[in-house]
Structure formats: structure tokens, C-alpha cells
Amino acid sequence: MDHKMKAISLWQPWASLIRTGIKKIETRGTSIRHRGPLLIHAAKRRAPWWIVQEISDALLRAGHGPMTLQMPLGCLLCKVDVIDCKRVNTVNRPPENQLPWGDFSEGRYMWILDNLETFHPVLYRGMQGLFHIPDDVVDRIEFRRAE
Of 132, 144, 137, which Cα lies nearest the Cα of 122? Predict the structure, then answer.
């Protein structure tokens, strides 16, 4: 069977925030037509240290404890379903608990994510934009429904 599983590369710590279930909305300057499974790939780059520090502080304020996120690089981390895409405006506002984890400026897009499944990180080379993961790679992943 041909999966044609799509993936997207995100810088750390955003990829790990999705993997932990804290980040449920990916914000982008473009919309997405794709609905359904999407693998989250941790790019080989981390955000600058001051952004990581801001996110660590936001985690503490949100009651998640200090930043203990493991931030693997250059690997597939988890799978989510893209269930919707909405443009940020006066009608479509993100939930308050998602504000620290994205750029919700007016006119940007919210990719709404759900049905998180995790697995042991799989080394894989990422790409810009949405990209396909070969079936043989997907077939080796042992998906676990997040609690």
C-alpha cells in the first residue's frame, strides 16, 4: 500500500512542543489544504538561544515545569492529524493556552493539529515545505497514541 505520508520540518523547540502535546496549533504564513496525517520532523537547527529561553519561561508560567524538553535534531518525532486551517483574524482567535507557542499575528494561518501519536525518534533528512516520507520508513515506525 502506498502511504504517501507527508511531513514538515520544524525548528526546535517547536517540534518537541508538538511531540509533548503542549503545542496544538502550528502557525504559518501560508494555508494548508492537506487534512489528515502529518509527520513532525525536527530540523537540524534550533531556534536562537534567546527564543529557547523565552519558551522555557513561558513553559514555567503555564505550569509545565522547567524546560526539560529533549530536543533531538534531524529526525522524525511524532505524527498528528491536520484537522483544520484557519486564518487569524478578529473572528478566528487561538485559545489563550496556545499563544506562547506561535505567531498569531493577524493574517497568518493556524494549522489545527489533533490525534497526536509518538514514537522513538527516527533519523531522517528534512526539507522545506511539506515533503513525502517513503513507505519503507513509515512502515518501520511503531506509533503510540499519546495519553
Answer: 137
The one-letter amino acid at 52: V
Among residues 65, 62, 131, which one has the least CA distance to residue 96?
62
Pair 38, 7: CB distance under 8 Å: yes
Measured CA to CA, the distance from residue 58 to residue 101 in angstroms comes to 9
Q: What is the largest CA-CA distance in the chain?
A: 46
pLDDT at position 1: 46
| Cell numbers found for residue 49 | 538561544
Please name each of the domains of the chain with its CATH number.
5-145 (2.30.130.30)
pTM of the model: 0.92
